[in-house]
Specification:
The protein has 28 residues and is mainly alpha-helical. The protein has 2 helices and no strands.
Length: 28
């Protein structure tokens, strides 16, 4: 999901969705 992060605009929504998905395993 590095492509979405590079955009910046859509990174906000995708970033949270992606971070929550990965962080969910380490940080509930």
């Amino acid at each position: 999901m590095s492509k979405v992060t590079a955009y910046g605009a859509p990174s906000t929504k995708a970033f949270k969705m992606g971070t929550i998905s990965q962080s969910h395993e380490q940080e509930p």
